[in-house]
Every structure is written in C-alpha cells, then in structure tokens.
Write a structure and sequence with these properties.
The chain is of the alpha/beta class. It contains five helices and six strands.
C-alpha cells in the first residue's frame, strides 16, 4: 500500500483536500495545522475532499475530517463534498455516521487549479497523542455507536497522558 500523502489547493475560497495512499496518524499534526489555518482564511467558502486515490484512512484522519466538516457547517457553508469510489472507505463513512456532516459522491471531479503536497512535519509524541485524542473525541460526539467504539481507546489515551513523569521521550 502506498504511503499516505495529503495534497491541498484552493479555488475561489473552496479548499480541495486530496488524500493519496494510506493516510495515517503520522500526518495528523500537519493536517490539523493546515485545517486550522484554512478555516481562518477570509476567503474560506467550503471544502471538497478527493479520496479517489486514497487506499486507506485511519480513525484519526476520519476524526480530523469530521472536525473540518463541523467547522464548515458552523461557518454556515454547505456540507463538504467527499468524492470517493472505494467501497471500503465509503462503508467507513456510512458506518460512522458521516452522512450528517458530508455529501458523498463516487463521481470523479476535475478540480480547477493545482494541488500541492502538504509537507509533513514530524509530530512529537505528546502532540500526536493530543491530536489522536481530539480526533477520537470528535468521532465519539457524532453518535452513540462511535462513542461505544472509541470509549476504551480514549480512556486509555487519557490515562497515559495523565501518568506522572510521562515525557515525550518515553514510549
């Protein structure tokens, strides 16, 4: 499976986020930083996700997509569009209740403008753990099924973060 990449672009205030390959936790800090900046732009008008070249998406990435969708809706924009034909990934979106946050289409879309690689920054352990926690809390807030699915993981991560003497240099 191809290592994950995130490509980004914009056209008339609509941001295009293209996920390529197997998008995992190692991209979460960079992805979240980009989305915080994106939502704060004066010309921000919406988001479209191109997942046609995605081979896999982990739950942390799904949580960050949910976070973006919630921000978009809070800004009074239309639901983000997700373009995806992979049945496994579409099943993930359906099973986790994303229909309340995004519109999903299997059609291929040609987006105007260029996308550029979002250059990953190596996350520190503490920063990555916080992003994982935040992403899973967001997924839990979407519905009761997700809350049950991720409750133990979130509790474990919260417990690890609270351990005395826990530092980013320890495993």
């Amino acid at each position: 499976m191809q290592s994950g990449q995130i490509m980004v672009g914009t056209h008339e205030g609509v941001y295009i986020i293209k996920l390529v390959g197997d998008v995992r936790l190692d991209l979460c800090t960079t992805f979240d930083s980009f989305t915080e900046d994106m939502i704060g732009q004066d010309d921000f008008a919406g988001v479209a996700f191109d997942l046609h070249e995605a081979q896999g998406i982990d739950s942390t990435t799904l949580g960050l997509i949910a976070k973006i969708a919630m921000h978009v809706l809070e800004h009074g924009c239309k639901k983000p569009l997700v373009f995806c034909s992979d049945q496994g990934i579409r099943h993930l979106f359906d099973a986790m209740g994303f229909d309340a946050l995004v519109e999903i289409s299997d059609e291929r879309q040609k987006f105007p403008g260029q996308t550029t690689l979002l250059v990953p920054k190596a996350p520190d352990e503490c920063g990555a753990r916080e992003k994982v926690l935040e992403a899973h809390r967001i997924l839990m807030s979407m519905n009761e099924k997700n809350a049950e699915t991720f409750r133990d993981l979130v509790h474990t991560l919260e417990w690890e973060c609270e351990l005395p003497g826990k530092s980013s240099s320890q495993p």
